[in-house]
Write a structure and sequence with these properties.
The structure is a homodimer of 200-residue chains. Chain A has 200 residues and is an all-alpha fold. The first copy, chain A, has helices spanning 13-38, 45-52, 56-63, 66-87, 98-124, 127-132, 134-149, 156-165, 169-178, 183-198. In chain A, helix 4 (66-87) packs parallel to helix 7 and helix 5 crosses helix 10. Mean pLDDT of chain A is 86; it is low at 1-10. The A-B interface holds A 121, 124-125, 127-128, 130-132, 154-155, 157-159, 161-163, 165-166, 168, 170-171, 173-175, 178-179, 181, 185-186, 188-189, 192-193, 196-197 and B 121, 124-125, 127-128, 130-132, 154-155, 157-159, 161-163, 165-166, 168, 170-171, 173-175, 178-179, 181, 185-186, 188-189, 192-193, 196-197. Chains A, B: This is Transcriptional regulator.
Chain lengths: 200, 200
C-alpha cells in the first residue's frame, strides 16, 4: 500500500497489528469527518474507501458492513465518554462534588448527542437494544452512584432511568431540530433537573 | 351477513353508517381481546376475521392493513386517555390539585403502557414520529399546563419533555420486562419525581 502514508505491512506480526490499528484509526477519523461534513446518511463504504485512499475490500474486511462501521464509530465515542466520566478530569471525572459531576455528565452527553446524534439514532433504531446496551448500563451505574453520593433517597434505579431518558438521542434530536430548542437551553434544563432532584 | 349478530345492512345510508360504526367497534374490541390473550405479535388479519366472524375482505376494507388496524387500536385508547385527562373525573380530570393531577396522569399512563405497550411499541418504531405525534403533543400541553398551575418555574417545555420521556413505552417495557421493576414501583417513582419537581 502506498497511498496516503500507509506503509506496506512489515513482516512481523507485531508490525501487522500496529498497522491494522493505525489503519482502523485512520478509517474512523475519516468516517467521522465525512459524517461531520455531509451527515451520516451520506456515509457510504465506497465514499469512505475513496476518502481514505484504501480499497473497498479493505473497508469491508475491517468493518463487515456499513452497520458495523457505524457501530465502531459509536463504540469509539462511547468509550471516550465513559473514560471521561470514569477517570477524566473533574468535574466530569472524579474529584468534584457529586452534584457538579451530575451536571457535567448531562452537559457532556448532550454535546455528544448533538455532535453525532445521527449515528446514535441509526444504531439506536432497535429500541429494546437501546436500554440494554452496555454503554447505557455504564451510564446508569454512574448516575445512580452519583445520586447516592449526593444523598438523594428514594428509588434511585428508576430515577436514574428517568434522568437518562431525557438525554436520549431521539428525544434530543427532536428537541433541537423539530422544536428548535438550542443546546444551551437543554443543558440548563438538565442542570435544573439535577438541582431539583438533589436538593434536600 | 348472518354471523355473530351482525344484521344485513339496511337500505338507508344512516343505517349503513350505524352498522359500519358497530362493525368497527366490534372489530376493535375483538382485536383488543386477542392482544390481551396472546400478544400483539399473534394478532393477524386472518385471526381477527375468524374471531369476529367476518370475512377477511371486510377487515382489509375497514383497516387497510395490519398496520392500519394497530394504528386504529392505539388511536382509540389514546383518545380515551386524552378524554380522561381533559374532561374525565378528578383527580385525572379537572377539579383536583395540579400536583395530584400530575400524579394521576403518570399513573394512568403507566397503566396504559403496561396493558398495551406492545401495540404502542409497534407503532412507535419510527422514533422521529413518536415525539411529533398529536397524542404526544396533547400530553405535553397538558403536563406543561399542570406544571405551570403548580407554580413550578424554569423551562417548563423541556421539563415536560423530560418527564414524559420517563413514561415512554419502550423504556417502560424495558423496566417492567427486562429489569423486572413492577408497575407499582414505577408509579411511585413517577409520583416521587412529580413531588421533587413541584416542591417550592
Amino acid at each position: 500500500m502506498t497511498s496516503l502514508g500507509f506503509p506496506a505491512p512489515a513482516s512481523t506480526a507485531a508490525c501487522e497489528r500496529a498497522d491494522a490499528a493505525r489503519n482502523r484509526e485512520h478509517l474512523l477519523v475519516t468516517a467521522r469527518a465525512i459524517v461531520d461534513e455531509v451527515g451520516v446518511d451520506a456515509l457510504t463504504m465506497d465514499g469512505l474507501a475513496r476518502a481514505a485512499g484504501l480499497g473497498k475490500g479493505t473497508i469491508f474486511r475491517r468493518f463487515g458492513s456499513r452497520a458495523g462501521l457505524l457501530h465502531d464509530l459509536l463504540n469509539d465515542s462511547e468509550l471516550q465518554f465513559q473514560h471521561g466520566f470514569l477517570s477524566g478530569p473533574a468535574p466530569l471525572g472524579p474529584g468534584a462534588d457529586p452534584v457538579d459531576r451530575l451536571v457535567a455528565f448531562g452537559r457532556e452527553r448532550l454535546r455528544l448527542v448533538t455532535v453525532q446524534g445521527d449515528i446514535l439514532r441509526s444504531v439506536e433504531s432497535e429500541s429494546a437494544l437501546r436500554y440494554a446496551a452496555p454503554a447505557h448500563a455504564a451510564s446508569a451505574m454512574h448516575v445512580q452512584m452519583l445520586l447516592g453520593q449526593a444523598g438523594v433517597d428514594g428509588d434511585l434505579q428508576v430515577l436514574t432511568l428517568t434522568m437518562l431518558s431525557s438525554l436520549d438521542a431521539a428525544l434530543v434530536l427532536f428537541e433541537t431540530r423539530d422544536l428548535q430548542i438550542d443546546l444551551d437551553r437543554l443543558a440548563d434544563a438538565w442542570e435544573d433537573l439535577v438541582r431539583r432532584v438533589t436538593r434536600g
